[in-house]
Every structure is written in C-alpha cells, then in structure tokens.
Specification:
By secondary structure, the chain is of the alpha+beta class. 57% of the residues lie in helices and 16% in strands. β10 and β11 form a beta hairpin. α7 (281-292) packs antiparallel against α9. The longest helix has 63 residues, at 214-276.
C-alpha cells in the first residue's frame, strides 16, 4: 500500500469518526482547514478534494439522520396530540389544546385558531397561545381579511417569512392590527376542513424572519387535519349537550306543567265538591288567596263587587273595562298596568263577570292553570247560587204553605209533588227563636244551612222554621240551636217535632214544635232545645193553645186507630188495667172478660205502644190521655169509637 493510499484511508476514517460521534459542523471545518494548510501541488490537492467530498457526504448523512430524528419526534408529537384530541371535551378546551400543541410542535412564538362563521363568512379569533399583547379572544376579523395563497380559490396552506415584505398577499387592516400588536413577521396558516367544509384556520407565527420548511408545513397540515376532526367532534358533542340540556329543560317544563295541571285538576275537583256541599264565595276566595298568594275580588256582569278577600289596588274603571273585554274575548287572564290579573268568568260562552287577582309582593306571576281552576270554580259557584236562589225560594214558599195552609189538603199535596220523594223520607220540624233583631243574618245563615242539609226554611211570626231530614228530633233541634247561636252570638231557643213523613203531616208537626218551644220558655228553658216527645203532657199543658186533641192523638193514636178499624177494646182494656192497679185478674173482673183475654189485649197494646208503655212517665201520660179522651167523649154528641161489645 502506498503512502498516498494510507493518508486517504486515514482521512476517511477521521470523517467517519466525526460522523459517528455526531460532531458539530465546526469539527469538519477544522479537519478541512488542517488538510488545506499542508496542501501542495499534485497529490496534496487531490487529497484535499477527496476530503472535502467525504466531509460533504458526512454532513449530508448527519442532516439526514437529524431530519429523521426530528420527523420521529414530530410523529410522536402528532400521536400524542391525536390521543389528547380524541378525549371528549368542550369546544373551548379542544381549541386551547390545539393551539398549545401547535406552538410546541413548531417551536413558534405564537399559535392561534380562527373559526369562520358559516352564515356571515366573518372569522373570530377563538384561542391564542403565547400572546404578549392585549390580544383579545373573540376578536372579529371581517370576511376576506384572512390571507389565502390564491384569492377566490379553496383555502390552502399559506406561509411567509416576513408578511410585511411579502408582495404575494393583500393585507387587511383588521389582520394587520393583530400582527402588529404581537410584532409578528413569519406566519404559517393552514386551513381547518371537516366533512368538506372550511371551518377556520390554524396559525403559527414567529417574531422574527423565519423560512418555513416543507416538513414544517406538512406537520402543520397533519395537525390541522386532526384538529378539524377534533373540532367537529367537539361541536357535535357540544350540540348533543345543548340538545340534552334543552330536552332536560323542556322535560322540566313539561313536568312542572303536568304537575301544575294535576294539582289544578285535584284542586278543581275538591272545590267543585265543596261548592256543591254549600261552600260560600267568601270562603272560596279565602282558600284561593292562601293557594295563590295574593288578594282576590269577584265582579259581576255589571262590574258590581260580589266578594273580596284582601286589599287590591284601586283600578281605573276604563282600563278594567277594556282589559276585561279583551280577557272575555280571548278566554285567558290579562294583566292591568298595576299588576292585577283579570280572569274572565263565563258559563256556556256567556260572560257572567270577572275574577281579579293581585299577587302578593315578591310572589311573581300566578300559576295559570291553578288560577283558571279557581276562576272556573267561582263561575260554578255563581251559577249554583243563582239556581240555588231560585230553587231555594220555591222550597221556602212551599214550607211556608205547608205550615200555614188552610185550603184543601189535596191542592197542597199536589204543589208539593215536585219534592214528594224528599218529603216522604223522615223529616224533623224545628222552630227556633233567636234573641236578635238581625233578621238578615239569621236568614242568610239559614239559607246556607238548609242548602247544605238539603232542607227547607221559612219565617213565621218572627220565628225561624226549618224542615230538615232526620229521625232524632231532639238531636236535630240541638244541632240547629248550637249552630245558630254560634252564628248570631245570641241565645237561641229551639223546639222540634218528628220524625214525620209526607207533605200533609208537616202542618201538625209544625204546631207541635211551636207548642214545644212555648213550653220551653214557660219552664225557664230559654237558650235550650227540646223535642215534643221530651216534654210529653207538660208541653200540652204549658203551651198557649192547650192542644188536647193533639196530645191524645200522639199518646193514644195507635190504640184509637186499632179500635176504630177492628171494633176492638184496647182503650177500654187499658183503662181497666190502670183501674185495677196493674192486676190482669182484677182488670178481667172489671171488664167482665176472662183473664186470658186481658193478657192477649195487653200483648197487643205492647206491640202498638212499645215495651216502655208501663214506665211511670209514659204510664202517667197514658192515664192523662185516657181521662181527656173520656171527657171529650162525654162532651161530644157523636160517638167517637165503637161500643164495647166483646165479651168472653
């Protein structure tokens, strides 16, 4: 091997050592400088030329390795970015991640995203990373202000080493303001496209002159493709979240509306029952005020006040008339200028008035369906009161005739045929005497009471007369006395008689109830109640007219009817039994009959009068009735019963 060949091999080996050691460029320069310093003619020049060639190739290999290493790093960064962007997040979070990744991957001073409005074409600076000025996210850039490679063509990557000295672009004032504010010179922008639509740009920029390499442009395009997909996904998720939120709000509104409707339905059903059971307008408004939270008033067809609860602002009559007309025409509640709501009241499309509602301070607008439910209930109550007033007057007139009728009974029964089914049920006649001159208050109370109890009322000789369903006269009388006393705040005395059935029996029961009341007063029982059967013969003795016939009929009626229908001797047998001091054998001797006959007759008397007829109190009344009957028989020229002809 010659010396020249050995020197060449040494030079190549030295270059390979520098290459393997990743030596910097100055090491190659030093090697070349040493070779040139010993260069002579001939072979020295050839050695230097070969060394320069080897150095150049080594530098190319080193640059290739460097590019491959950088490419690997860029690909790794793209993979990391793809992994991060695949995680679901909001649009703002996604855009911030994109700008951060773009700035780090390109090692630029600033990165930002600009999204385009599909409707107007304007662009909005959405996110920025690395800004040092007062750059504001949300900065609006008019359409056409964002540079493109070729104006009028689809968006393509755009880059410039110094945008101020680049004649390829036409600069817009808005974009220049942003670039000047950040002192930017080199700019690289790539479009964001998703599903074939241009949605914006991704920009990186440097504050000095920088010539972008094809690798940097390719890297930004790859990142832009990933970013566009991430933006599309984020927008889709954001749309889904918005739709879900809207559905949740709609569901909440529907649930609230349904809950309000169900509550209004329950309230209306409850109120309808209460109205039919006799609930008054004042009580209805009090309940409405508690449920709705405010003050209410009811106006009639002519604007007259029918009822009011709470204090409402004084309204302008002209405005009220105008708004009420509008509410009646539309069928919905309409507000006045002072915050009072006007709700129309109608029945079968006929205007019957309006309901005024003024919410309490801080209560806000009323619940529509609940307010409408109360308006409907008020309409129902007004109709019920109108029809009830007419029917109540008919019933009152009938009771007045039943208690005072002196004409043919057939005509009275015919007039009462409409209420025959009611009158044939057990009824009690109550005559009450309240110690008050407030007759209007008494009649008003009585109207509601009989409507609730499905009875009748009238006033006779200053006394309140009630015909009420029931079988226990004493209990009904006490109930009436207590309720009327509580309503008037005065003492009330009440007498009653019953039970009675049929229209033709009311007059007699009324007379007995009056005598019971008179007897109570005579006995010092003012402020108490009693039934005719409770007073017995004392009621007859203390009453003003001493109704002997009525007392005898009440006491001996079943026996007298039996003897008249069957020509029996039960009355005579009862007299004999009392004369014999309760001895059947002695009574048989007095009556000239067999003792067994007396026993059979006594059993029949027990069936007709009840098992308590031998009780001292009832026995005393029976004896008094027998004596009065005997006296009436002696005074009456006509025989009142069949002769005693039965003998055994």
């Amino acid at each position: 091997m010659t010396g020249e060949d050995s020197t060449t091999e040494d030079d190549v080996l030295r270059v390979l050592e520098l290459l393997a050691g990743e030596a910097p460029a100055r090491a190659y320069d030093q090697l070349l400088a040493g070779a040139r310093s010993g260069t002579g003619a001939g072979a020295g020049a050839a050695r230097t030329e070969r060394l320069e060639r080897a150095t150049f190739l080594a530098r190319e290999v080193s640059a290739l390795f460097e590019r491959r290493s950088r490419r690997e790093a860029e690909l790794a960064a793209l993979v990391d970015a793809a992994r991060d962007l695949s995680s679901p997040g909001s649009l703002d979070e996604t855009l911030r991640l994109i700008t951060r990744r773009a700035r780090l991957m390109t090692n630029m001073d600033l990165a930002c995203t600009v999204l385009v409005d599909e409707d107007t074409g304007d662009a909005t600076l959405t996110t920025a990373d690395g800004a040092v000025s007062a750059l504001t996210v949300g900065y609006r850039i008019p359409a056409g202000a964002v540079p493109a490679a070729v104006p009028g063509e689809p968006p393509a990557p755009f880059w410039t080493a110094d945008h101020l000295a680049d004649d390829r672009t036409t600069h817009a004032t808005a974009l220049d303001e942003v670039l000047h504010a950040e002192a930017l010179q080199a700019v690289l922008g790539v479009p964001l496209c998703a599903d074939g639509r241009h949605i914006g740009h991704l920009y990186v920029a440097a504050r000095g002159i920088h010539h972008f390499t094809p690798d940097e442009v390719a890297l930004m395009r790859s990142l832009a493709d990933l970013s566009a997909s991430a933006v599309r996904t984020a927008r889709t998720l954001e749309g889904v979240r918005t739709a879900n939120a809207e559905l949740a709000r709609a569901d909440g509104r529907v649930r609230a509306s349904l809950s309000e409707a169900l509550r209004a339905h329950r309230v209306q059903n409850d109120l309808a029952k209460l109205v039919l059971d006799g609930l008054g307008l004042d009580a209805l408004l009090a309940r409405a005020a508690a449920d709705l939270g405010g003050s209410l008033a009811v106006r009639g067809e002519g604007g007259e006040r029918l009822a009011e609860h709470g204090r409402l602002p004084r309204t302008d009559d002209a405005e009220l008339a105008r708004v009420r007309l509008n509410a009646a025409a539309t069928g919905v509640a309409c507000p006045l200028s002072d915050g009072t709501w006007v709700v129309p009241l109608s029945v079968r499309s006929q205007d019957i008035g309006c309901l005024l509602f003024h919410p309490a301070a801080g209560a806000g607008a009323p619940a529509d369906q609940l307010l409408v439910s109360y308006a409907r209930t008020v309409s129902l109550l007004l109709v019920v009161q109108r029809s009830g007033a007419v029917e109540g007057q008919v019933r009152d007139d009938l009771l007045a005739d039943l208690t005072t009728w002196d004409g043919p009974p057939e005509r009275l029964v015919e007039r009462a045929s409409r209420f025959a089914a009611e009158l044939h049920r057990p009824h009690v006649v109550v005559v009450a005497d309240p110690q008050t001159g407030a007759t209007d208050l008494v009649e008003s109370w009585a109207g509601g009471y009989v409507r609730h109890r499905r009875g009748m009322k009238t006033v006779q000789s200053g006394r309140l007369v009630l015909l009420l369903p029931g079988e226990d006269a004493a209990a009904v009388a006490e109930e009436v006395r207590a309720a009327l006393a509580a309503a008037t705040g005065t003492q009330v005395t009440a007498g009653a008689c019953g039970p009675t059935r049929g229209a033709d029996a009311v007059h007699t029961a009324y007379q007995q109830a009056v005598r019971c009341l008179q007897a109570l007063v005579a006995l010092g029982g003012t402020g108490r109640s009693a039934a005719a059967r409770d007073l017995g013969f004392l009621g007859m003795l203390l009453a003003g007219d001493h109704d002997v016939a009525g007392f005898v009929e009440r006491t001996l009626g079943p026996l007298l009817d039996h003897d008249a229908e069957r020509f029996g001797n039960l009355v005579e047998t009862l007299e004999g039994w009392f004369s014999a001091a309760g001895s059947p054998t002695r009574a048989a001797e007095i009556l000239y009959v067999h003792p067994n006959t007396v026993s059979r007759r006594l059993e029949r008397i027990t069936q007709l009068l009840g098992r308590d007829w031998q009780h001292p109190d009832q026995a005393l009344e029976l004896q008094l009735a027998l004596r009065l009957q005997r006296a009436r028989t002696c005074l009456d020229p006509e025989p009142v019963g069949p002769p005693a002809t039965e003998r055994t």
